Amino acid sequence: MSLDAILARIDTDLDPAIARLFALLRIPSISTDPAHMRDVRTAADWLRDDLASMGFQAAVHDTPGHPMVVAHMDGPGPHVLFYGHYDVQPVDPLSLWHRAPFDPALEETPKGTVIRARGAADDKGQLMTFLEACRAIIAETGSLPCKVTVFLEGEEESGSPSLVPYLREHADMLRADLALICDTGLFSDDVPAITTQLRGLLGEEVVITGPRIDLHSGMYGGIAMNPIRVLSRILAGLHDDQGRVQVPGFYDGVEELSPELRAQWAGLGFDDTAFLGEVGLSHPAGEVGRTGLEMIWSRPTAEVNGITGGYTGAGFKTVLPAQASAKVSFRLVAGQDPLKLREAFRAWVRAQLPPDCSVTFHDHGASPASRMDITHPAFEIARRALSQEWPGEAAFIGGGGSIPVAGYFKQILGMDSILAGFGKDDDAIHSPNEKYDLSSFHRGTRAWARILTGIAGA
Amino acid sequence: MSLDAILARIDTDLDPAIARLFALLRIPSISTDPAHMRDVRTAADWLRDDLASMGFQAAVHDTPGHPMVVAHMDGPGPHVLFYGHYDVQPVDPLSLWHRAPFDPALEETPKGTVIRARGAADDKGQLMTFLEACRAIIAETGSLPCKVTVFLEGEEESGSPSLVPYLREHADMLRADLALICDTGLFSDDVPAITTQLRGLLGEEVVITGPRIDLHSGMYGGIAMNPIRVLSRILAGLHDDQGRVQVPGFYDGVEELSPELRAQWAGLGFDDTAFLGEVGLSHPAGEVGRTGLEMIWSRPTAEVNGITGGYTGAGFKTVLPAQASAKVSFRLVAGQDPLKLREAFRAWVRAQLPPDCSVTFHDHGASPASRMDITHPAFEIARRALSQEWPGEAAFIGGGGSIPVAGYFKQILGMDSILAGFGKDDDAIHSPNEKYDLSSFHRGTRAWARILTGIAGA
Fold this sequence. Notes:
Aminopeptidase; homodimer; alpha+beta
């Protein structure tokens, strides 16, 4: 088997690979929106068919929510499980998109050619890099050098309600020597990275109820408690003046960064101001005294992701609403127990309710943070593979976002995960005008080919 | 002219009067919603035609916004100007209505027959009491005992942007000896009232902008400033722990209640707990140490009428939004300058912005509070008329809501206003399932007949 021949085939076949990705991007598989339920299944079917066309034993498995795509192909080397997700975020506000979010196109930009569409970077473009690597290896050699299981989820953007039950029920089918996960980013344009620690996520919706009906603020303003006022007070108290989260016990179990990692991260030369400058900001808004990388990689946070109450349409309505609600999320780090924090948060909110107000909570998922054991030799193989495709040397880094599946793979299947992804900070994932650099797609495919052949030979 | 004959005719003609009101209630004249612009005009045309059918010289006058309906009829006595408004509030949330909001019906309730529809009480049912009184007097006597101008507005629920320019331009046509305004309520089910002081209203929309695009809270959570956090902090600071508004200078010029009015209001036996109990509340939420009537009649307030930011749809989205906004209103009392307070509020908000955040404001109207000179003899005539129609003796009271037109009539046309209205606390104006008691409609019509004949003879 010649790695050079495989890489050459990937280069030659780039156009049809882009066409396949576009076909997948055209399917509006928004998992959080019930109106798109059938579109999510259509994306699953498309992936099953594509995997089957390469010779995988591929199937779409039903769950109580959106389906899982699972595909197997035997091989001589160790067994790897590849994970990606084929669902995408909602597209609102639609008015800010330059083109229709599900009409993908290549666009020339000052920083190179990009693939523009919802899901281009998160995560359809990324998962297709692995499938294209497999396709090239199979085309060139007739088989894969490792035993490969592909496992694609359709609920990653909506809290993965079916994932844990599915992993528990199908543990024997899915357990491998190592997981490969493609849902992360480069450290910078020229420096690839393998993410070895990830924050967890706790999602809560808080609904405050005051009067039993909406009231006229002329008749009741001044005497009736307004739930927006109550909610604002509670949310305003989430952080103190130093940016520290005020839920009791929130920092219990949170460890300081090791001197080694602190030194390694300092060496990355991360520029807070440049990072924030790309999105129109300039001042780090987290805990006073922490570095920017700590704020996004190793410190837990509290954020309000949505708030609504009263009249929010055009014009003005002098109403005192019966309800106000907020979606609140916490990014968690190793040592924090999501379920304990959920109870602490709820108790903290309840303790602040004035007379006449009640609260209900809705659970929007809880996943712990995860840290990998980077002494496994495959981590160094992957680091070298990435270093060969990008100008800079690849680094082991932290990740601010949650990829709960990595934690579940460890807990339920006993596997570590290599989190190698090729997104960039300006990809606008979860925002209007999401894109994925064509160079990320191309180099990523080549990197997976190197990793698979490398692991096989290790 | 026999008052008894006029009252008898009102009783006999109640059914056709209800049918006329229903025709008006079927027109969805929501002035704040651009989608209903034509409906607002349809309501104006309907009223013009109805007034013309009685013999008024009636016309619909264009403005830059919604039109004014103006009608004149000569008479021997003093000149009165009647004011009402034919626009209505939005109907959201529609799901809470028991029947379609613009499909009026009589409903039997444990407390008597009610007219159920958006606008039944605010203000179509109320304005029709005056028109029905005129119709009965004209039918019985062939003319009116006073010179009457009817002036009906279509922008009252959306800040009345055209009112002041219109009053200034048409002052000579509209100036009368006295204004009669029907847009207020009874003091209690059996005790009618004339409102002699009304709070003003200042409406502001605050839009806080942070990052230039929506951000992923995994990538940016902890380092990027979240505009919802900033907005929550500002709104939470609107009141101190004693319920006092914290905008600097807010209480400048606010007078304490006179001992006479304090004694009169105490004599009304207002029950805070019962008043709040009707809407599922029990604790007065205003300034500590103030009575419930002070909180709603003579003390200024700050309220958040609407708030929105981030993802508010079904499910969850881990977004840090670029913007968050709130609609904030202030109820004002005599002595407060709305325009000065607008600037004070804006300066107070700006002073609290952290780095990286900006704010824009949208003006949603500003009207001062008003107090009437109740020594004018017509006030006592009206008080007696109301006392004859309801079981209890009528009282001079305050009003918590804004009826800015009363202030403008004083400032621009030099007229005092008799604010006699027949709404009840449980009318659910501005809420789902608005209603107007049939007894209010019937007694109100009779009361106006008494007032018009009384003023003519004074």
